[in-house]
Amino acid sequence: MKVLLPKNFDELVEKFNQNLKKFNQIHSLTNYKNIKPIVEDSIKGLEYVTRYPKVAIDVGSGAGFPAIFLAMILEHTSWHLFEPNPKKAAFLTYVKVNLALKNVTIHKEKIENGVKFKANLITSRALMSAEKLIEICSGYYDEKSEFLLYKGSNASLEVENLDARVYNDGVRNYVLIGGLNVG
């Protein structure tokens, strides 16, 4: 998918960065000092998605990587961020309000405990194995849904039993899984 950044993208990223620095002083959400590579990594994954999603889910959203940056770009996609950690969910809620991200909904729970709905795209960054992630997302996807997983060096081994495409960008492996049987 061709990635087009909105005109205010850099401004939103800077606001996000200020929010992160503010929260990190108290809650230590992440140890990243420079978020520019994180932003680039987050949006790079969109290049491999085959179609524009109407509804997207991010599992284990943490400090918002990649979901917040993807929501900034895909403004007409309804984003659902699942984060059970209270301080991380509070940060995500603060960012949503502060950046006026009307397309973002924060779910302060594990995805397996949520009310099921279908998503066109499910993302996750280094949360758990691909097979385990697909398992806990049961009920949220159908045969038309895609999974975009941000993985490390063992990505190919992790998805060898799945119909997946692995795209390597030096350090990061982006794994795209689609067309899962949901029978």
From TrEMBL:
Keyword Zinc in record:
no
Its keywords, alphabetically, are: Cytoplasm, Methyltransferase, rRNA processing, S-adenosyl-L-methionine, Transferase
The record's top EC class is: transferase
Protein location:
Cytoplasm
Entries under Pfam families matching the protein = GidB
Gene Ontology MF terms in the entry: rRNA (guanine-N7-)-methyltransferase activity
Q: Name one GO cellular component term.
A: cytosol
Function according to Swiss-Prot or TrEMBL: Specifically methylates the N7 position of a guanine in 16S rRNA.
Protein family:
Belongs to the methyltransferase superfamily. RNA methyltransferase RsmG family.
What is the name attached to this protein's record? Ribosomal RNA small subunit methyltransferase G
* Annotated source species: Campylobacter geochelonis
Q: What is the lineage of its organism?
A: Bacteria, Pseudomonadati, Campylobacterota, Epsilonproteobacteria, Campylobacterales
What gene does the UniProt entry assign to this protein?
gidB
